[in-house]
């Protein structure tokens, strides 16, 4: 039995109270689903800036009988009073709320800072005041900036190349300070290109995998910025969920720890395009010869990225057990059925 299975068994036997910020988003809704399946009490906070009510409904429909264990609050992490209110009587915070996307941060650095930095500081203060046992927050591989080292190791970072990257690095420093000065147990997770079901393909700032799936399903050519040899460590959302739960429960070694969360592999954009196109062309033969369109490199993009996951394996027992290709298959199956799904609503409980 792996470390995660041990923790899951313990949680089923002794449920805890969790707060998930950004709960209506891609990662947040998956955290909500897994925690409810484990019999936990979950409070979710979201302002629907990038999340969707339909994500909450989908989770509640897929986990029958657990709705009474979920309490939703519609609110903004930029409001300190809201942060304090939702943090009361909580054992662990899984802080996912943020404005992602490098391009969006370049267009609006002030908004990026207000949500990602000010919002995280509000949550850290709330956790301190409420006596939360563990504060786990979403950081990003973007903090490695212009460092050319591969694989990316937690101790070696470069200069940030976007406001988004800088905002995530500042959050790490604040979390470390809250641990050393106020005694709040914090754990940061540097996500590497997370993908999977429920990731929004329609946004102008959509991540590459859902965006390309949507375009291919519509018979459109995908756009690759650069020569297509840019590479990423694509990490299935299931692994991110497990990393969060482990980070919230396993005893940590020293204050203010930060860990990489990735697959530990490396895939070029050209390889990714072929994988998605081939997976979809089985049911749509016309896609088999659809080639991508190449454009100029995009400002703020890092050329190569791959996670060294040694530290999180050793410290938390994290293990990305689902192969990348299988994760893509699961993701393609979900999108093929749901791309045209209508929006819906879920009752807000303040």
Quick description:
With 350 residues, the chain is α/β, with parallel strands linked by helices. It has helices at 3-13, 26-37, 53-62, 80-86, 102-107, 109-130, 163-182, 208-217, 237-249, 269-281, 310-316, 324-338; strands spanning 17-21, 41-46, 70-74, 92-95, 134-140, 186-191, 194-195, 223-225, 231-232, 235-236, 257-261, 267-268, 293-295. Helix 4 packs across helix 6.
Q: Can you tell me about this structure?
A:
The protein has a single domain (3-338), classed as Rossmann fold. The strands form 4 sheets. The chain has a 7-stranded parallel sheet, sandwiched between helices. The chain has a two-stranded parallel sheet with strand order 7-10. α8 (208-217) runs parallel beside α10. It is 42% helix and 15% strand. It has helices spanning 3-13, 26-37, 53-62, 80-86, 102-107, 109-130, 163-182, 208-217, 237-249, 269-281, 310-316, 324-338; strands at 17-21, 41-46, 70-74, 92-95, 134-140, 186-191, 194-195, 223-225, 231-232, 235-236, 257-261, 267-268, 293-295.
């Amino acid at each position: 039995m792996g470390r995660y299975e041990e923790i899951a068994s313990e949680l089923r036997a002794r449920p805890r109270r969790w707060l998930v910020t950004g709960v209506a988003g891609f990662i947040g809704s998956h955290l909500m689903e897994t925690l409810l399946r484990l019999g936990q009490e979950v409070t979710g906070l979201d302002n629907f800036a990038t999340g969707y009510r339909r994500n909450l409904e989908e989770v509640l429909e897929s986990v029958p009988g657990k709705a009474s264990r979920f309490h939703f609050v519609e609110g903004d992490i930029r409001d300190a009073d809201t942060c304090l209110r939702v943090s009361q009587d909580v054992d662990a915070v899984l802080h996912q709320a943020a404005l992602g996307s490098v391009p969006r941060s370049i267009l609006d650095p002030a908004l990026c800072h207000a949500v990602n930095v000010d919002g995280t500081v509000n949550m850290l203060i709330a956790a301190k005041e409420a006596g939360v046992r563990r504060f786990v927050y979403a950081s990003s591989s973007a903090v490695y900036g212009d460092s050319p080292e591969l694989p990316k190791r937690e101790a070696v970072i470069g200069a940030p190349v976007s406001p988004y990257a800088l905002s995530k690095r500042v959050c790490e420093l604040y979390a470390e300070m809250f641990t050393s000065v106020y005694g709040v147990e914090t754990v940061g997770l540097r996500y590497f290109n997370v993908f999977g079901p429920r990731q929004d393909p329609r946004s102008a700032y959509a991540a590459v995998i859902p965006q390309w799936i949507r375009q291919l399903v519509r018979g459109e050519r995908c756009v690759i910025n650069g020569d297509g040899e840019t590479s990423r460590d694509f990490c299935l959302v299931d692994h991110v969920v497990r990393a969060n739960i482990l980070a919230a429960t396993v005893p940590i070694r020293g204050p203010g720890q930060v860990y990489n969360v990735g697959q530990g592999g490396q895939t070029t954009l050209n390889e990714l395009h072929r994988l998605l196109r081939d997976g979809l062309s089985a049911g749509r033969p016309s896609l088999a010869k659809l080639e991508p369109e190449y454009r100029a490199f995009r400002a703020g993009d890092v050329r190569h990225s791959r996670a060294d996951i040694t530290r999180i394996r050793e410290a938390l027992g994290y293990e990305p057990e689902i192969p990348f290709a299988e994760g893509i298959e699961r993701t393609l199956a979900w999108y093929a059925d749901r791309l045209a799904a209508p929006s819906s609503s879920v009752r807000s409980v303040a």
